[in-house]
Amino acid sequence: MLFSLGEESIFMFGNGHKATVDTAPPAGGLNGPTGPALTSDAPLTIDPDRTDWLLPQDWVRFGAVPVQGGLIALSDPEMITRLAVALTGKRGWRAILAVPTAIEALHHQHFGAALARRAETRVPLWLSSRGFGQRISRDRLQMPLLTLSGIMFSVAAPSKAAVALTAWCIFTLLCVTLLKLSCVTASLISRRKTVQPTPLAEDELPILSIMVPLHREAQIAERLVRRMTRLDYPADKRDILFVTEENDTKTREALDRAQPLPEGFRIIVVPDGHPKTKPRALNYALDFCRGSIVGVYDAEDAPEADQLRKVAAAFAAAPPEVVCLQGRLDYYNPRDNWLSRCFTTEYAAWFRLILPGLSALRLAVPLGGTTLFVRRHALEELGAWDAHNVTEDADLGIRLARRGWRTELIPTTTMEEANCRTWPWIKQRSRWIKGYMVTYLVHMRNPFRLVRELGLWQFIGFQVFFVASISQFLLAPLIWSFWLLPFGVNHPVIGILGHEGTIALIVLFLTCEVVNLLTSFVALTGQHLRHLVPWAIFMPLYFPLATPAAFKAAYELALRPFYWDKTAHGISGSED
């Protein structure tokens, strides 16, 4: 079919992997009238001389690729006008329609390496943690040098060091407790004011792209497909991408066993490269997303069936500055053992009180790694995820805040598998803490610029959240020793604070524990969580597990900053 588009002539004929023969003029078309048909049996073979007409990511965005014969193959006829504008000044091309799988295969085959390199460096260098990869760098040496300085100070002036360390312990303990109390209060107040947005009609729903990064997840891949299938969203507006690594053949074989995948489901294969991290995979797959809203799930996730509809409605009702929505996470295996019960309690407080409180207080929200949804334009403007940061979610939340955008929490839940074994829990937590350390150091490269972009209020919140929290993990052994004070044990801190100061410290310490306990109780008020209330009293025995994780994180920060200590899934016998 021959159509006129500006100065170019466009031939259209249906095809799969080939430009098929059609000797009779087909009926209909983009603009109605038909014209002379082209005859060709040639397979779609890329034309390397014209690939530089656009950047690789732009060919992917248009769903187009230049092929032999002076043709450009497209998968979506509605993209032709936009493509013609992008190719203004380029002459002698015609367009054909091809099935999307054929186009996408050519994209991966010919542009995959370039897109993978781009995925590794999408975030500007000054905002990325990839500088930590240098053996000798300011980023990488900050924490070890700070630790060494502290040790030298302790040796040179032990009494002064003891005073300083005690003061810092007390100060950070007070800061963390005040932040937690403020978040809980703000969360409870904002919860009363929350109005559920009106659900959107079918024709109003936007295309939603959901990326599910998978690495060595063969054990649960088929289960994951079933869970994603339960999502109640129109098939033509549901874009589910299972993102696998090139060398992870077992996971892809497991996905193949679930074939044929439902409409709107795709498998994206990320070319091999470094670092092999979740954010690098997300960055690569982002170019292939169709939606104006992009979400992320983890491999073990079981989201509520109506979650995508709630997300669409919440975005439609939100002001423009709200570009990110974070859903709640919960665990479907809390009854496995003591550790899973405590982990579930911690998550309940985090996603039902702390994060909503941070949002209500207009502070930067460190995102969770799953059940987060972001407007596509915001992701593109920010450079998406930092491929080298092992807590890319928290980093993204801070970068959103620096741009003046906001994150809100939505009342929809995704069920996950709680880590119920001690050493895997410590390894997972060490990755999180290492990522928090990296995120803090990256954003503090230029503190004056940070305070300008965040504003003083958010800057203070950033300091309390990261510095005070990390300090509490690392200084926990000293804090634990404060437990001896109420029992009259002669503690060295008595000589520093005196009798009245020691009494005040005991009151502060007990108050902090009461706040922690009440936070857990409030978080467990949900019907399905009430059975965990008796276990909340054991949380003081659970949190110390984060201390060995913090020291492991500090060690890896100096020697293995990009190492991703992967969490194994499918361990629990429980399902959703």
User: What is the general shape?
Assistant: globular
Q: Which class do the helix and strand fractions yield? A: alpha/beta
Spatially, the strands of the biggest sheet line up as 8-7-6-9-12-11-13-10
- The multimeric state of the shown protein is single chain
Quantity of strands, as a count = 13
- Portion of residues in beta strands equals 5-15%
Q: What about the largest sheet?
A: 8 strands, mixed
Number of DSSP helices?
19
Low-confidence stretches: 1-41
How many independent structural domains? 3
| Average pLDDT taken over every residue | 87
Radius of gyration from the alpha-carbon trace, in angstroms: 27 Å
Helix content: 40-55%
Distance between the termini: 52 Å
Membrane topology: Multi-pass membrane protein
GO molecular function: glycosyltransferase activity
Pfam families: Glyco_tranf_2_3
Protein name: Glycosyltransferase
